[in-house]
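Reviewer comment 2.1 asked that we show a complete input and output for one of the modelled complexes. We chose the adenosine-5'-diphosphate case, as it is the one discussed in the main text.
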Amino acid sequence: MPAMVVAVGLHKYFGNFHALDEVSLEIQHGEVLCIIGPSGSGKSTLLRCINQLERIDSGAVWIDDELVGFRQEGDKLYELNDAEIARQRLSSGMVFQRFNLFAHMTVLENIIEGPVIVQKRAKSAVIPEALALLERVGLKDKQHAYPSELSGGQQQRIAIARALAMKPKLMLFDEPTSALDPELVSEVLAVMRDLANSGMTMIVVTHELGFAREVAHRVVFMDQGRIIETGPPQQVLNNP
Ligand code: ADP
Ligand code: ADP
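Response of the prediction step:
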């Protein structure tokens, strides 16, 4: 089986600033990869390039054997337009540092919004799935609450459920616990650990080294836009 994500020779500039410098990476199906490194080293930019929130300047990314940003017809490649990129982006679910829930929608409405409005699936099919996801993140009793009534940890668990409702092939996490009060971090990490155990392919940018040590199959250390080291957690986390 080909890798879930293949990134080859990625470069990204912001003006003259070289944010990604020849980054190559493969993530297998079901693999959990943690990306660590100092602030500003390009971790977030790498995630954003993988799911096309940022354009890469050179290099290429394949997700599940599909070349990102292009459509192939015969032996010709066509660049995707914005709407097509948005559709392709649905193959990965992304969870950000800030929860990004819709404030005017209930928890349940937040979760079904993507499948119903974007994927145009029937509400009657989506609602039972959404309730099952809420159960999975331990928040079924909050289905009618609004985000402002929830703690940061609860909101982030809802954000994970909302991403999963779109049935992504992989999940990208960009410092999902960095904005949380310390006592709320573990409930979010527990949901992520369950997800990892269920076989989801995950790329997690995090400062939670305990999580990386226990859950990651592989850890990537980035500095100044480059991958400095890749290996099992015991190896990478013991050579800081
Ligand atoms: P990390 O996630 O490792 O903290 P980022 O990928 O967020 O690092 O950022 C890498 C560098 O690129 C930082 O110096 C940041 O300021 C810069 N950067 C990120 N996004 C932009 C942007 N849209 N425009 C200009 N500079 C950016
Ligand atoms: P993160 O929490 O991922 O490190 P940042 O604070 O670095 O987030 O960036 C938040 C947003 O601002 C991102 O969309 C990033 O691309 C953008 N950004 C970061 N640095 C710069 C910059 N120097 N100039 C313009 N945009 C930036």
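The chain has a mean pLDDT of 96. We note this here for comparison with the apo prediction described in Section 3.2.
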